Amino acid sequence: MAGVDAAVQISELSKTYQGLLPWARHEVRAVRDVTLAIRRGEIFGLLGPNGAGKTTAIKMIAGLVEPTRGRISFPAFKRRPAIGAVLEGSRNLYWRLSAWENIRYFGEIKGVPLAQLREQAAELMELFGIADKRDRPAQTLSRGMQQKLAVVLAFLGEPELLLLDEPTLGLDVASSQTIQRLLKRLCAERELTIIVTTHQMDVAQSLCKRVGIMRDGRIAACSPVAELVEHFKRQDYILGFNRAALPKVEQHLAAEQVDYEVVDGDWLDQARLRVKLPAARAVYALMAGLERLDIELTDFRQELPTLEDIFLSITGGEGGAA
Ligand SMILES: Nc1ncnc2c1ncn2[C@@H]1O[C@H](COP(=O)(O)OP(=O)(O)OP(=O)(O)O)[C@@H](O)[C@H]1O
Ligand SMILES: [Mg+2]
Questions:
Q1: I want to staple 221 with a disulfide (CB 3.0 to 4.6 A). Which of 56, 213, 225, 316 is the partner?
Q2: At 159, phi and psi to the nearest 5?
Q3: Residues 197 and 284 both lie in one domain
């Protein structure tokens, strides 16, 4: 991709942490030689098992961790963009300040006029169902509510780049979906650029156009989600039919040397098989065979891999979905 259009251009970026303690002086190469361009208005997912280097990468983009080598630039903005961030852990808010005091503090730092801040914060807190927690000290909120408040803080003002490190961690399903909807809307309406890390593969699959999968500090794969799914697609088909026909079908598949397994064994009077064909064209012979046996299909579809399947095959089964 042309670097000039990129919202974030990461070039040969590396971070090596030095062990500080006398008994742990070894170096940790957290991020190794990562080159990546993120488009304006894109929701880019950074995935990878624990310790892969996602947080370190996010912190370097946020300017909180100094790279050991390499460069981060923001060509599309021609200057440093306004950044909103939700970082890992609990350092996104001041514990003793109330929700509203946190909002006022961070809003003022970002230069948001008070009237606009009041309006925006009220709207966001309403949306996340924490409007009644306005005057409660942050430390008395539940973990999920604190996470929601952290997301509200990241959204204040008009960020051009959002860096979200596991933003939906610990949130209930409805809140996670609210955040996802909001992010998609802001990307479409305001060309907001978002880099998000998550261990929830379903979140990544529904939210991100493109993902980079990190492993041991490197980008092991980087593609649009749809292309990854296409690339990892196997010729697996699900067949459903009346259970009474199962012996006949199994005998036929065995004779034709077609690989298959029975799935959902107890599903009412239906039998379901996952048939693994050697090539896409083999589906014609399969259909012709079933027609000869007079099998009435109640289900027939190609089974596509989920992002979770793909993630596990790229990372060799390390870590993965929560
Ligand atoms: N401040 C630090 N000092 C020394 N090593 C660190 C520091 N921060 C992170 N590391 C190490 O760098 C590596 C990458 O850590 P990082 O937090 O970036 O991973 P991550 O992909 O965000 O993992 P997780 O999914 O668990 O959040 C790990 O081996 C970690 O132990
Ligand atoms: Mg992390």
A1: 213
A2: -60, 145
A3: no
One domain, residues 214 and 265: no
Among the atoms of ligand 1, which is closest to the Cα of residue 19?
4
> Is residue 41 classed exposed, middle or buried when 0-12, 13-18 and 19+ CB atoms within 10 A define those classes?
middle
The answer to the question of residue 110 being in a domain is yes
- Are residues 116 and 181 located together in one domain of the fold? yes
Nearest bound ligand to the CA of residue 54: 1
Q: Is the CB of 50 under 6 A from ligand 1?
A: yes
Q: What is the reported pTM?
A: 0.84
Q: How far apart are CA 172 and CA 55, in angstroms?
A: 23
Instruction: Read off the tokens for 38.
Output: 């993120």
Closest ligand 1 atom to the C-alpha of 65?
1
Q: 53 pLDDT band (50/70/90 cuts)? A: very high
pLDDT at 320 over 60: no
Cα–Cα distance, 169 to 147 (Å, whole number): 8
Same domain, 145 and 268: no
Same domain, 217 and 250: no
Query: pLDDT digit string (tens) for 120-153?
Result: 999 989 988 899 999 999 999 988 889 889 999 9
Atom 26 (ligand 1) nearest CA: 50
Residue nearest to atom 4 of ligand 1 (CA): 17
pLDDT tens across 229-282, in order? 888 888 999 999 999 999 999 999 999 999 999 987 666 789 999 999 988 899
| 255, 110: one domain | no
Give the domain extent around 120.
3-230
Tally of domains within the chain = 2
